[in-house]
Every structure is written in C-alpha cells, then in structure tokens.
Amino acid sequence: MRNLLPLLLGVALTALGVLPAAGAEAAPPRLVVVIPIRDEIAAPELYILRRGLKEAIRDRADAVVLDLKTPGGAIDVTFDMMEAIAKFPGTTIAYVDDEAVSAGAFLSATTGEIWFAPDGVIGAAAPVSSTGQDVDATMKQKLVSYLKARMRAISEGKRYRGEVISAMIDADTELKIGDEVIKPKGGLLSLTATEAMRPYGHPPVPLLGAGIAPNLDALLASKYGAGGFVIRRLEVTWSERAAVLLNRASPILLGLGMLALFIEFKTPGFNLFGAAGVLLLATVFFASRIAGLSGHEPLLVFGVGAVLLLLELIFFHSAGILGVLGVLLMAGSLVWSMADLWPGEPLGAAWSARAFAVPLINLAIGLALAVVLASALVRYLPRGWVWDRLAVGAAVRGSAQAAGAAPGAGPVLAELIGRRAVAATALRPVGQVEIEGRRYEARVDVGAIDAGAAVVVRGRTDFGLIVEAAG
Fold this sequence. Notes:
The protein is built from 17 helices and 17 strands. The chain is of the alpha/beta class.
C-alpha cells in the first residue's frame, strides 16, 4: 500500500499534464534568431534584416526577434523592411531596447509581439523629410493617411495596436479608450514600457506591449521556459559595419568629393585631386552596396590592385610604386582565392603555410608558363603585321636624352624653342609632339591640347619640351 500511493499520484499528475507520459520525449528547444537593428534605418539595415530572415527561414527557425535601438530613418527602406518581415512564416517579436522611434515604431507594429526593456520607449512616428524637417502640408496629409491605413491593415486582430500607432503618426488623432483620453489632439504619442503595458478595456488587455523583460534571455524564458530555446544572434559582417559607417559619413564624403573636383577643374590635366574626387563620390554612391561584399574579399582586393595598376599606367608616373603595389595585391588576391580556408576557423590555423602551399605553387607555375610563352612569342613570331603592333617601331626622342644621354643633346633641344610642332598625342598635360618626323616628350603648363593640334615650343626642361597651343 505504501508503494501504491506514489504510483497512483504519478498517474494522476500525468493525466493532468503536470508530468510527461512515460516514454514521451521532451520537445526540442525552439530556435530563435536575433537580428540587431541598432542604427538609423537605411539601406545597410535592410540588407542586414533580409540576410537574417533568409538564414532563419533556411534553418527553419521558430521565431525571429528584432533587437531594436533606432531613432528612425528612411520611410521607403522601412516599407521594404516591413515587407521582408512579413515573409517570415514563424513568430516575429520586436524587443525595444531602448528606443523604437519613428520608423522603428513601424517595424515594431509589423511583428506579432512587442516586448520592452524596462526603459524602452516607442512612438513619435510622424513622416518628415530626409533632413528631419517637416514635409509640405499637402504631401504630409497624404503620407499620414496612407501610413495610418497601412498600420490598421497590419494590426488587425491586435486590439488597440492600430489606434495606438495611428496616434503616433498623426498629431490630430485622439486616442480614447472608453471614457479615458490617453492622448488628446495636438501632439504625437510616445509610450514608455510601463505605459505600453497598462491594461485597458473589458476584458483588460495591455495597450500595446506583450511584456517587459530586462534582456532577451528573460524574454524568451517567459515565452518558452528556461532551457526551452536556443538563441542564434546574427553576426554583423565587416562589410555591413562599413556600409553603416559610410552611410553616416556620406554628407562629408560628398562635400570633400565635390571640393576635390572643383580644384581639379581649376588645375591643368588630370591629377590627384580628380582621382580623389571621383573616388569619394563613387564611395558615396556605392556606400549602401558595400554591405554585400563580405565573403568576396579576394575579388575586392583584386579590384583595388587593378585600379592601382591602371592609375600608374594612365595618370601617375610614381616610379612604379603604385604599379608594383597593384601587381602584388592582384597576385595576393589570386593566392587568397585559391586557398582552402574554412569559415570560423581560428586565425592561426587558417593562415598557415599548408593552406597556401598549393596556391603559391599554382601561381609560380602560371608565372613560369607565362614567361616561357612570352619568350617563345618574341623569338619565333614572324615579323609582319602582328609583330609591328606588339613591338615599338622606333625609339622616342625625348628630353630624357638631354638629362642622361650624350653631351650636346641639350643645345640641340634648345634650338627647338620657337619652332612649330604637331601634338602627336593628347597633352593632358604631358604627351608627345612631332617636329620634322621626330617625336619628343612634351608638356603644356595650362589646360590641355588634343592630338593633331598645332603647338609652339616655348621652352624646355631636362625631361621634356614646354609647349602651348599655336595662335
């Protein structure tokens, strides 16, 4: 009888669901993906959200939590983010830690549940321009009407949510539940965590929030129980961080780029200011697209090397420094792309001689093969049409000869001063001119001269003639 009582008690508790049935397996823990939205809403944040949602769907996550701390941002990007959130088939939760202002409130309204940190604040979602100023009254009226309708549509079945978000959007909206006016006309609604959790109506339900939790672990423990969940936090990549920083600095980069181009237009030829201006403006243009470069680092390094090599060949003559650096970067990126590196592998183990041995051997074989083929080409290719286009037909007679050639060359070049010539190449500001069938290195001090134009020699240096357009 003494042993029978515990047995009967266990059967009764099992029938009531307090204890699991014998042989029943415990439910697996829920997979929860946490996506950080921690900055101003812009294109980089959209990329982070989309990547996190795609990974969550791929891994069949049970829930996605948006870890929100944002002052708001671009409304068009916000709409794209709202559409992306709606594609996730599982539970979506917004955790306001510690602010979800303006566009952040819209993102929160799209999720299934809104949780708050103890000091969380949400609200003030009226549309404004990209500079933070009020938009035109007519346009604002249209935007407010559209936003309120959209918020009501996504808040169906969530009791007060549509009314609350509308009061955050429109200062002329009065929020009243029963006989109590929560927000009168004339201001935008903002709520603290405590205010969002205050119950209203019959039966009473919280105004907006689903709960208050000091951190994400406490939030998920309240929903799924201790040990009933596994958190996977989305790690923001280096390219996404760079995109966020460049997006913040875009006004500064834009101003510096335009200043550099202004200086370029005021100076002859194409020089460092022009290259810097183009680079700065290109950085502004591609800032939001940099977020997707993570995982393509070898290609990025190869591109940088190719740009440096082109700058050396076309614009700058830096004694080969830029060219050598470009070739080294291109060669290094090729080795990097062929290396067998595993994601998440410790740095010391990944960057080992063994990982790069085969790529280095392949690169050496490729270089040796190129040298052999080039030597055979030079030795055995028949003279003729192809060769004439590969080889330099005649030496260029330039003032470099005066700097390091036979004595007497300088006086000969000095006799050319005052002579008329033809620009054999474009002078921007350096190039070549032709005098009586001979070519000389030359430069123009002011402006640029197109190929074929008539010029006059006005002086010389140890490295070239100084010319100007013929009058």
